[in-house]
Amino acid sequence: MSHSREGRHGHSKSPSPRPSAASPPRARRSRSLSRSRKSRSRSRSRESVEAYNPGNNLYVTGLSTRVTSSDLEKFFAKEGKVLECNLVLDPRSKESRGFAFITMETTEAAERCIKYLNRSVLEGRLVTVEKAKRSRGRTPTPGRYQGLRERRGTCSFIQCILLLIKHRAFEG
Q1: Where is the composition biased (Low complexity) (predicted)?
Q2: Domains, the chain, ranges and CATH?
């Protein structure tokens, strides 16, 4: 039986390079390591004072599509004063997307909500209540395509240089 170095499609394969005793061993690096030494966050938000949650903002999931903001306010008012109720709605149908953010007056009231309302039933659905990761939601997107950046007021490097040259030609 003869062994050939041909692959599945008839192409010849070259043998794998073997480390020789003369060459020094190379350090192997994982491909998943970041090229920079600084660790970078992949999140869109910057850690800021505004985004820090002092503990009174709650994230509520598992809501029925029939739930309204007033239903949520009444439900959470059992454990303390509700400052703000932000029920996230589908932009087209205007019905609940199944989650909300509730801001309680105090962290103690928020902790009571987590303790007593987490895994409770609202409108026939088991809801989950936990501390939100941020004190406020992300800045909403406009919800429509606004075109390429060059057409929205910013320009590419070359376009900016051409504009600068044209501007200076008019000055003098």
Answers
A1: 13-25
A2: 57-131 (3.30.70.330)
